[in-house]
Design brief:
By secondary structure, the protein is an alpha+beta fold. Helix content is 39%, strand content 18%. The two termini are 23 Å apart.
Length: 103
Amino acid sequence: MAFGIDRQELMCWKASVNRGEIAYLTHFWLDPRFPGITSVTKVGCSDLNRLSRWCLDHGLDPAYIHHRERYPHFDLIGSRQADILRSEGLYDQLERFVERKHS
């Protein structure tokens, strides 16, 4: 279940993905398969070669890309999520969704 973002944020992410850009969308997320995880960052890009290179550049396995017809993406969770958001300078998403629980 996703929550904590508005329609405008989602629409901007989708538009960026469709343009073949690497786009980041972080939101609150609960899934019983991942206890203690409260957020996910969807890193999307319609250019699968570019998204695969992004995965490899960050030490991630492109085999875990979700090959959705319109919005292919890689899900970041846990410590790698925080590390990558920080390295990409996405402090707003990091503070809103990842580090918030530590405040």
